[in-house]
Amino acid sequence: MRNGVFAGWLNQKRAAAAGVILLLGLTAVLAVGNTMRETQPDGISCLETALNTGELNWEMRSYLESRAGSQGEEGYFVKGVLAWLDGNVDGTVELLSQIGEAETENAEMIRIYTPILLNEAAAELGDTEGLVENSRRALEAIGASKKYRNNIKLCWRAVEPVVQSEGKIQEAAKLLIWYLENVRGLNDETRIALKGNIGQIFSLTENYMDAMFYYMDALHNIEKARGVEHQNYYKMKLLACVGDVYYGLQEYNRALEFYEQVIGEEGKDSKERTVQAMAVINGTDAYVMQEEYDQAEEMLEHLEAMIPGLDPDMADDMEILRASERAQIAMGRGQLDEALRQLELAGQWLKEDKKEVAYYKSIYVRYTYALYCQYSGQEEEALKQFAEVAEESSVFGLSLEETVYYHMAQIYKDRGDLENFSQYRERYSGQIQKKAALLRSGYVARAEQLYRYGLLQQKQQKNELALIASAFGIAGLLAMIVWAFRHIGIWRKRSWTDPLTGLYNRHYLEYYLKKNGKKLQGQQISLVMIDVDHFKSYNDNYGHIEGDRALKEVAAVLKYNIRAADMAVRFGGEEMLLFIPGIRLEQTVQIMERIRRDLKERSIEHKYSLVSTVLTISAGIFSTVYRGQDIADLSRQADQVLYSAKEAGRDRYEAREDPKEPAGL
Prior knowledge:
It is built from 29 helices and six strands. The protein has 665 residues and is mainly α. A six-stranded mixed beta sheet has the order 1-3-4-2-5-6, with helices on both faces.
């Protein structure tokens, strides 16, 4: 399959992917549990089976068609359901919209399913106006029914169109929270499943503190509950969900601890093995994000024994996601032919895929394909695919925008397109700042709620800690909550150091400036933006493993030549940044000259460079007086100076003082 064909089937799969829910490769939400009891085909109650399976045998259809002539709500309901089963969406809406307050013997079922089917039909028609109200009506009717109130699948079905609708996902969480807090007679399993569902909805919107609160509470319920039928499934699923929160925070090693706990359990049925399989996929991706490709490959091998025990539809999805992960591993190793082969396999599986179980997978495969296009030099196709992934991710809350904008900025930087590079660098920075602000604001609200619910009150703390620790281990879920209280700067959502180079990351620099802003006020500071010359050519010809070694060597040179008061940061890709406070520009220039000379003397071969036979760097030095400026603005200024150095021939540095500020010191 050629790349154009590959892009073609991706476009064909977009419609199928749009409208189901996936959190960074997760399986569906915790919607197992109490299933609906099958009813005997007396009266229109035989529709209950059809409403859950989408199928109706000819005997039942004949009987119901004979009842379709009934007057009033029951007649409209029967005709509306038959229209729905026949795929007549407009007819479904027209008929069910005429139903008022049903008072027949089947009123309970009519009150529940009428708003549910109206929502499902409206979602197909793209009409989102009445979704939240219909979901509310359905949940109220479910909650009022002794028969249905503990049917977690039905509760999820009532809110699913809201979850899938652009901009309304938070309303779905509010609806389920209302149900959890106001409906009487809910059993332990229903409460556990609802809290898990609410947690996953919050995770999708990156409200990680809210998500963690509900996961913790659900786990607490599991430990206290007796006789919950799917207890082990829920425990495994919640462990995986906690791993997903750490993944979302880009604390990949912490995420892996929880994924490995899930994988180490004995999967007794297809549901439990599905949770394990998704933990393998996400764990593999965590290793890939840290550029640990051997460990990623080893993690992926777990799927070999798991796939035969999965439901056939989930097994197909695992094949698709496994091929996508293998493609990323191959790209990390510089094996582009193997990456394309794996993408073609993923494409073939997607083409034959008949049912979405691991939702939004085609968008993640599209992202992998965009990476392949970038690494294989097909920059226009890469930009096109990245743009589509960013758009879809924004609509469906997949949190891919940050990494997509980073890659788009890299492409424009390699092209020397400063205008677009700055634009996407700004978008990348904006995504980071948005998440940081969200976590900062979420901390206060969640701290208040934790206090209000008394989960950490001293009187109960000992028992609570024991219960949580018993299920999650000492470094488990409670540690995340304690961590939140210990660090008022909850926005420190990532570890402070880059795992490859050992340098600080940009999030630590942001934290450092926020913490030390008053101390730095009025001081002369310099930012030095450093870029490895023709590093793409180095990676393409020497391979990504050698590329990683080269970056480590550059990082070592930086750390060796700066002062204790200075900070070396891996800013992204082959870009590194020095933050140098308290000295004049000319002194910073001397430091930069030492660094440039030291690296050249190490004679790291780079025969594919256009400026030297050894690895070299270019740098832009921007010096100013610190007045509380944002790191994005400071780095942009240094970027512009770096661009001038590259335009002047590379293997050099340029320095510029802020014209708005005096020289200082």
